[in-house]
Amino acid sequence: MSSQPQPVTSASAPCTVAGAVRVDLTTQRSSRRIRLSPKYGSRPCEVDVRYLWCGAPDAPTVIVQGGISANREVVALDDEATPGWWQEAVGAGRPIDLDRYRVLCIDWLTPAELDGATAVSSEDQADALAALVEALGIARVHAFIGSSYGAMAGLAFAARHPYALDRLVLLAGAHRPHPLATAQRAVQRGIVRLGVETGQPEQALSLARQLAMTTYRGSEEFSRRFTAAPEFREGRFHFPVEDYLVHQGRRFVERFDVERFLALSESIDLHDVTPERIAAPATLIGFPSDRLVPLSDLCELQRRLHGPATLEVLESPYGHDAFLKETHRLAPLLRDALA
């Protein structure tokens, strides 16, 4: 986990919660320059890792990383700010309790930041986190909580930096991508590349996201929400599910770009970690309705992990996105895993 960190920016202040300043919580939103040797690069490079580190001062640090569309803003600690991507799970008194822990989260790296690397790997993300942990003076990480792509990075972290981690908590993520999920993402990337070639990158990115939404959510949810009859407008029939998908595609284009999507989607499918290398105690959480990470993959991961591992199965209609939608039901599992 060697690095030569250089501070790039720094910001630290008391947190504001529910309109009041919490002087007992601190937040640091900053960037550190660290040195990496990218898996798909030809030479070591320096990269600025953007991070959020917040919670009780001097408390154990918990790394929290989400899917490829997640960023470092896992939680907003000002009630006037836009909520973080896991706002219901992270906060004072919440399952990932900022009264007891400090949460560390980074923006995912891309090949453009890795000095000519042809791709970015889950190992690169793990090495960046490990170098950042060292740069921040964190002796050991209490837990790595990873969801989706974050679970993949967590497994890579545990395999490559075992001395830096106490435990793993993995939601909807495994040691390798399922081939059917890879096939679905490959089609999405093909749509985006065709859009770039034909001068319609944003339209293509929107379509790719719409297709992705059909894999993130479960069949039961779609069956419940989109049973109304189609409407005839603008010269054709529009089905209720179409409006939902178009809305999701539009929102994604507003906050994501083509290059980042292609790189991180590909990174998921390049992921491959040997479970037998991981000795850290692990809690695995899976969802039977998840069509991207089937329970059979999590069962295999549990069997092959070198350290003790438990598998928790949570029934949900929300498919792969259940880790975002079922926060209240996940709360006791998260609390137990961190205890």
From TrEMBL:
GO terms for biological process: homoserine metabolic process; methionine biosynthetic process. It holds the Pfam family Abhydrolase_1. The keyword Transferase applies. The active site is at 148 (nucleophile), 290, 320. One of its GO terms (molecular function) is homoserine O-acetyltransferase activity. Residues 61-326 form the AB hydrolase-1 domain. Keywords: Transferase. This is Homoserine O-acetyltransferase. It comes from Dyella marensis.
